[in-house]
Design a protein that fits this description.
Length: about 325
């Protein structure tokens, strides 16, 4: 898989995926600054997951600005979003912390591509968050700032919040909402009219409107101004509290802002909303059928992925055949 293979197009391959280059490449030679291996700090997370999410956002914001990251808020936001998609397996945090700034884009590409294989529609929607990682000549200062963001997020306990195997634990809070709103300038938020619903309000609304009688498997939950998906998170948690599976429901969220829709798409994966979740980016107040547009884009994403997988499978089969032929010819040569 080459660096110019964009995540807008690929799919489920039965064979085991190779170890990503960022994990198998030898670490750079030690320098005066890297003589000791870095290990993740044990962060004393607040008891309240929402407070924990806000603390991560505050620390990441400080790290980005203190390292002169610039005005491209998609970079710190996309970095944290990618890390949220990691599982908190033994050694993962230490591995990420010991990457160099130059190795970080490859890590993020591997993370997003791994999920693109399963849900190309959602990863395509999240393109604003990871498109920068495919830049063949990234700005060194931005790389250093993204690297500082990575270390800060890990050391503030990001994986303790989002890295659980249990999706109900992963959905205890939304990390991307406070980060997005904090990264944006106040005047920008006012101009956009962007004000994300607080978790306490969305949780209250979900608890008041969803019960055993109203929650019927097969129904679709719609949110025309989804933001980063806070309402979906609350509804999903309410359904789980009632002993229901999010996979038995349809989900359709839409937002006019592409960065908010991108965050909602990543959160849909983190919170495991299921195979019937669609996230669109359109103006819900227009007469256009945004649901039909989103559904068409999702179908095209899966078709495009399948075409690339078919091509990759054919290439792999040809390579195996050529390797077998070379081995056969080598054996024949040794026999003579």
């Amino acid at each position: 898989m080459t660096d110019d293979f964009m995540p807008r197009t690929a799919a489920t391959i039965a064979t085991v995926r190779p170890v990503p280059s960022w994990a198998k490449n030898p670490s750079p030679k030690p320098t005066a600054h890297t003589t000791n291996k870095i290990t993740a700090r044990r962060y004393a997370a607040p008891n309240d997951p929402h407070a924990h999410a806000h603390k991560i956002a505050d620390n990441v914001l400080d790290a980005w600005h203190q390292n002169f990251g610039g005005s491209s808020i998609d970079i710190p936001l996309g970095t944290v979003a990618g890390l949220c998609l990691l599982r908190n397996l033994p050694g993962v945090a230490d591995l990420v912390l010991n990457l160099t700034p130059e190795q970080l884009p490859q890590l993020l590409k591997e993370i997003y591509l791994g999920h693109w294989i399963k849900r190309p529609d959602l990863i395509n929607r999240a393109i604003r968050l990871h498109d920068w990682a495919w830049n063949p000549s990234p700005a060194p200062q931005q790389l250093r700032a993204a690297h500082a963001v990575t270390r800060t997020a890990i050391n503030t306990g990001l994986l303790d919040l989002t890295g659980h195997d249990d999706p109900q634990r992963r959905a205890e809070a939304d990390v991307l909402s406070p980060l997005l709103t904090n990264l944006r300038h106040k005047s920008d938020k006012k101009w956009r009219g962007e004000y994300h619903t607080p978790a306490c309000v969305s949780d209250l609304m979900a608890n008041m409107t969803i019960d055993e009688d109203s929650a019927k498997p097969g129904m679709t939950i719609c949110e025309p101004a989804i933001g980063s998906g806070m309402m979906f998170r609350s509804v999903a948690q309410r359904l789980r509290d009632l002993g229901l599976s999010t996979h038995d429901f349809g989900w359709y969220g839409n937002d006019v802002d592409s960065l908010s829709a991108a965050c909602a798409a990543v959160n849909a994966i983190i919170w495991d909303l299921g195979p019937r979740c669609l996230i669109g980016c359109a103006n819900s107040l227009t007469r256009d059928d945004d649901y039909a547009k989103t559904r068409t884009e999702a179908l095209e994403a899966f078709e495009e992925r399948d075409r690339h997988v078919e091509t990759a499978t054919t290439i792999a089969a040809h390579r195996r055949a050529l390797a077998a032929f070379d081995n056969l010819m080598a054996g024949a040569g040794n026999a003579t």
